[in-house]
Amino acid sequence: MSLPKFDVIELRRSLLNWYAQTGRNLPWRNSSDPYQIWISEIMLQQTQVKTVIPYYQSWLEAFPTIHNLAEADLQTVLKLWQGLGYYARARNLHACAQQIVQQYNGVFPYELEAVLSLPGIGRTTAGGILSSAYNLPISILDGNVKRVLARLIALSVPPGKALKSLWELSDQLVDSNHPREFNQALMDLGATVCTPKTPNCSECPWTLYCQAYLLNLQSQIPMREISSPLPHKIIGVGVIWNQQGQILIDKRPAKGLLGGLWEFPGGKLEAGETLEECIKREIQEELAIEIEVKDHLMTLEHAYTHFKVTLNVYHCRYISGEPQPLESDEIRWVTLDEIDQFPFPKANEKIIAALKNNS
After folding, report:
1. Which pLDDT score is estimated for 85?
2. Is-catalytic flag, 41?
3. Helix pair angle (34-43, 123-134), 10° resolution
4. What is the rounded distance in angstroms from the CA atom of residue 252 to the CA atom of residue 265?
5. What is the pTM of this model?
6. What is the tens place of the pLDDT at every residue in 68-113?
7. Is 118 a domain residue?
């Protein structure tokens, strides 16, 4: 793909001038430490800056170096990540730190191929890290940048159908003299000016060149993919109490959705079942114990990337059987006072809060 007829040098100059005046002052931008920049890049995947900042600061207090992270217990890592979502990112950070210590003596690599071989790091994340940490002229293409470039050239298809062309465009534009500032400026432009809805074109340094703006198509571009409605699952959840006032929790398998996190056991409602029948069956299948389903605690809605759930949570009384982790990695009986020591998914945090309020 060739750029429309405008001067790439001028595009770079105008964007860098704009960034020098309006660029965001973010904690990781005051550092050239590749470890700190890597952590910020992973946290910023699918998470807003204002949400990331306190997590980022807490993370660096707990794990100031790659060696600290590599030596940490995964449960400690997941607990610190609790609430940020997309937990595979935390598991990958931990595995990645261990790989960097083993293969690179704890120094984050500066070759693109080496960085791309690390768990959880794709092309745009690698470009973000290497340009910010080592000032290497490597392009990026996150969601904000896709939108900026799609509008710049008035892209006539959804960005997902033109990734090769958008990468070529990002490669052509990146400023080899100031790659760190250029990539940061491009991300800021998408985050603060060239926003998804009602872009603030009067503040944009590229209005002279932006084809969508010149054609008055900025509200139609980027074009959207037609998406199917998200599947919806009804889930029965059991808060199982024993005679000692302890609650049974289980740890999800390390791989897969919410891997390594703890939860209250339960599962999907089958056709023709009541919620009470669902919970009794799931607990028998997952833990091989008999329970009595008691009072309803709460119902809550939660959305993941590819599906939505309604969690129907019931107090349950443990009756008999030796609990076994048939579909989980581990099980524990814990008191309500001890439960905060374990990393839980966001929806389960609301259940814990309700239990504490009722205790």
Report:
1. 87
2. yes
3. 150
4. 10
5. 0.84
6. 999 999 999 999 999 898 899 999 999 999 999 999 999 999 999 9
7. yes
Same domain as 101, residue 30: yes
pLDDT given for residue 4 in this prediction: 64
Residues 108 and 58 in one domain: yes
Q: How far apart are CA 179 and CA 174, in angstroms?
A: 6
The one catalytic residue among 10, 41, 322, 338? 41
Angle at 345 between CA 344 and CA 349, to 5 degrees: 70
Is the domain of 45 the same as that of 139? yes
Judge whether 264 is annotated as a binding position. Answer: yes
Distances (CA, A) of 188 to 81, 180, 235, 313, 319: 25, 12, 40, 42, 57
In a domain, 263, yes or no: yes
Q: Is 270 annotated as a binding residue?
A: no
348 is in an annotated binding site: yes
Long-range contacts of 219-226 (CB under 8 A, 24+ apart): 221/150, 221/151, 221/154, 221/155, 222/146, 222/147, 222/150, 222/151, 222/155, 222/158, 222/159, 223/150, 223/155, 223/156, 223/157, 223/158, 224/158, 225/158, 225/160, 225/161
How many domains in the chain?
2
Residue 263 known to bind ligand = yes
Does 253 appear as a known binding residue? no
Q: What is the pLDDT of residue 224?
A: 86
29 carries a ligand binding annotation: no
The confidence score (pLDDT) of residue 240 equals 97
pLDDT value of position 96? 97
Inside any domain, residue 1: no
In this prediction, what percent of the chain has a pLDDT beyond 70? 98
Q: Which domain holds residue 349?
A: 232-358
Same-domain pairing of 68 and 145: yes
Q: Is residue 221 part of a domain?
A: no
Beta strand pairing call for 308-320 and 290-303: antiparallel
Neighbours of 212 (CB within 10 A): 23
Below-50 pLDDT ranges, the chain: none
The label of the residue with tokens 């430490």 reads: 33
How confident is the model at residue 1, as a pLDDT?
55
pLDDT at 305: 79
Instruction: List the CATH number of the domain containing 259.
Output: 3.90.79.10
CATH number at residue 32: 1.10.340.30
